[in-house]
Design a protein that fits this description.
The chain is an all-alpha fold and 99 residues long. It has six helices and no strands.
Length: 99
């Protein structure tokens, strides 16, 4: 089976997901979150860095649950085309999720 290259939109969505998870994690360690979510720290690192732009749904569900994020809120945040990738852009993901 040949995997098709990701579209620019999929890559951007993966970067937004990584930024959202990093921000939601805050000062908690990556290791702590990964172990609580029952995923490998390497998997979490790759998702947060955007290297895995299309992670498996159960993986994201477990991480979101550990971080106290609803999947609806995660999807709403990463689906916004004007969402800034990276650290704070004036509209922090955590602020939008809890508002």
């Amino acid at each position: 089976m040949v995997r098709l290259p990701l579209t620019p939109a999929e890559v951007a969505r993966g970067q937004r997901l990584g930024a959202l998870l990093r921000q939601a994690r805050g000062k908690r360690s990556m290791l702590e979150i990964a172990l609580d979510a029952r995923v490998s720290p390497e998997t979490l690192r790759k998702i947060e860095s955007g290297r895995v732009a299309t992670p498996a749904f159960p993986t994201i569900a477990a991480i979101a649950d550990t971080l106290g994020l609803s999947l609806d809120a995660v999807w709403a945040e990463i689906s916004q085309p004007d969402y800034g990738v990276g650290p704070a852009t004036g509209h922090g993901a955590r602020e939008q999720l809890t508002a």
